Amino acid sequence: MNTFLGFGREHVERHYRKTGQSVYMHLKRHVKEKATGAAGGAIPRRRNGKVFLDLELNRDFNGDEYDCEDEAKLVIFPDHFEIPLPNIEELPALVTIACDAVLNAASAYKKQEPDSWDEEIQVSKHARSLRQQDNGVRIPPSGWKCQKCEMKENLWLNLSDGAVLCGKWFFDGSGGNGHALDHFKDTNFPLAVKLDNLTLDIADIYSFDEEEAVLDPQISEHLQHFGIDIIPIQRNGTDNGHHNTDNTNGMRPRVSEWEVIQESGMKLKAVYGSGFTGIKNLGNSCYLGTIMQVLFSIPEFQRAYVGNLQRIYDYSPLDPSTDFSTQMAKLGHGLLSGLYSKPPMKSELIEQVMKEEYKHQPKGISLKMFKALVSNGHPEFSSNRQQDAQKFFLHLINLVERNCVGLENPNNAFRYLVEERVQCCQTQKVRYTQKVDYLMQLPAPIEAASNREELIAYEAKRNEAEENMRAPPEPVRARIPFTACLQAFTEPENVPDFWSSELQAKSAGVKTSRFASFPEYLVVQIKKFTFVVDWVPKKVDLSIDMPDFLDLSRLRGTGLQAGEQELPDLTPPIVLPEDTRDNSMNSSDSPEIDESAAMQLAEMGFPLEACRKAIYYTGNMGPEMAFNWIIAHMEEPDFAEPLALPTFMEPGPSVASSGLAATPLDNHPPEESIAILTSMGFPRRHTVQALKATNNNLERALDWIFTHTEREEEEEETSDALSDMADTTEPNDSAFSNANTHSDSTLSPDQDASGPQIKDGPGRYELFAFISHIGASTMSGHYVCHIKKEGRWVIFNDHKVCLSERPPKDLGYIYFYRRLSSS
């Protein structure tokens, strides 16, 4: 009664022993079928007038046929003494007030839902009178970049002149350099809209003049001025959160896709028991449910959370609703225990047959508390809109990484190294680097479709129907061979803004990707979604003959080959905003440094050369940022040395002499990223280590620092043991054997033990699960997953779990493969 935490019967004793809290309120709802002849259409009667804790009547219990009765009582531990409620006469006033507060409290998920509505956004005073310049600006659907710096994220479109500029910089390393605000100060153009995930329903508009988020009733017209034609995202129209087939842009509903993926036209046999528990759809939450079903079918996740269930519960915080490991263990137990997936009793079936009806459906488990935790603070997943399952998978991987301290890290099953080979087209020299990844994105080249002639004929008929204003023809689905997708993956791709260290200038460059290691479980995403010219998010209708068995051995990286010449290991110069850059400066001149800012810092007593370095490494972002850099680097031996521009690096010690079988990743973090983190007070060594471990992602690097600092001493003690273990691994036959082994030994992509662990092995796999999407966009539609269990394919469609008759393996969106044993 001191908190609003709720516990089931099996957990309340543990909470009592842990906290000493002895007074609990027991809440129970009794659902009873109405007597024969009761008036239909009546609202369910509650004999207790209070609706405690927002308990909802299960949808399976039709309000016309059932009554419900709520019961509340106090329970005193350890003797389980019960006091029925209400009981104003016998209870002290303080206890009565506490009881009323609990009975009238809104649950955590109910509190979360209206958050977006509590802060009412007003229409901007500039919306109706906004003047837009006729400057011919047209915004493409992708490839945006800040006009004053190199930022490609957190970009805002000024609705007056079409300028694309970056937003403000935030403490966690996200955001931008504030050029959108600077533009307002220079021009007084007040309104800007964020370009990410832009639709008519989802438009983040900010008024610099009013200094708050605003609404713009004419947003569609204002965007069309710059060539952006957005359409509203279709909302779901059913009770269970499913989106019916999309019918946007006048296209014919894809009934066939809806039926094929859900196997709607077949009599599917329901299955029950451990591992066959469904998940309730909370309304556009199927993206989350399908990912969790697949993850908890993997032994590594089962061991990490369900295998450690009692330990996690015993050491959970006083408020377990905020603990990620506790909620993962709770979810895994719900899916795997079989307690929530039981077949109907024989007597129930007989009674239903006698009534000529069959209503039993497994209810599944609810993920309300889990969703509230994992989506907390996330702008997309905290909403009630449909989301991209692939983005949520990576989001969950990040959460597991941050919260696996002291536990087995199940992410090791997905983690692998990518070998990237970049070649300068002018000098033909190359550079090999490695990065950590968790998911393989596989292109789907339409031009390689086996029914290309049929597609061309369909396009001609569709264009003719549009011109003559007739109904469009029956859509034709592209059939793409899997071999063509693999071929497209291996093809070289252009590197935008490639800087050649050999030429010391920007040049044309191409990149190819290979596997430096193969993961235990390979996740393959088909790149089905794209933006067309008119900004409409479009899903390409295609099928791919995904194989049950996959051999990617030929895609293993080989490293530097005989006859190849390496590009010099030089760092590109710091890119400064155009408004602070001296355009007359060439590559042979000294770097641009704000000398007045350097002198301002020197007057504070710091060495002048150190101040000049601070200004340079923080990109001339001002004395305040440079001061933070100085504080973070004062203890370095070369602190007061003159600024030295990047030069050829001396060859480092060989990998063999380092005592590790794993080659460190050659993705040395950019100095500007290091400067941002060190300016927050983190040691340079930690920031470099964090950026390497997260592929130079500032936000993830910050999380990595917080979650790994406490473990650093322990990991340093175990590094020698890991080195000894790595010495015993058997190298493969490739020229890049130091980075890849065919054994299942645990490797680290960094030379220190605190880097992410890599499990390498053969590149032969078997398909065991796939997630399919129905609809025209990831922001609408419905997700279904198929998982192979005990040699049988099972379909998980929200709370319904059945044996699959025809698993639509050619229409999947995300595929999950497990490595075949070497035997």
From TrEMBL:
**Mind telling me which PROSITE patterns this protein's record contains?**
UBA (PS50030), USP_2 (PS00973), USP_3 (PS50235), ZF_UBP (PS50271)
Q: Which Pfam families match?
A: UBA, UCH, zf-UBP, zf-UBP_var
- Listed GO biological process terms: autophagy; protein deubiquitination; proteolysis
Question: What does the entry list as the binding residues for Zn(2+)?
Answer: 146, 149, 166, 179
User: Would the keyword Zinc-finger be found if you checked this record's keyword annotation?
Assistant: yes
Span of domain UBA: 592-633, 668-708
Q: Which GO terms describe its molecular function?
A: cysteine-type deubiquitinase activity; zinc ion binding
Entry-linked InterPro entries: Papain-like_cys_pep_sf, Peptidase_C19_UCH, Ub_carboxyl-term_hydrolase, UBA, UBA-like_sf, Ubiquitinyl_hydrolase, UBP13_Znf-UBP_var, USP
Protein name, entry field: Ubiquitin carboxyl-terminal hydrolase
Q: Organism, per UniProt?
A: Oncorhynchus mykiss (Rainbow trout)
The organism's taxonomy opens as: Eukaryota, Metazoa, Chordata, Craniata, Vertebrata
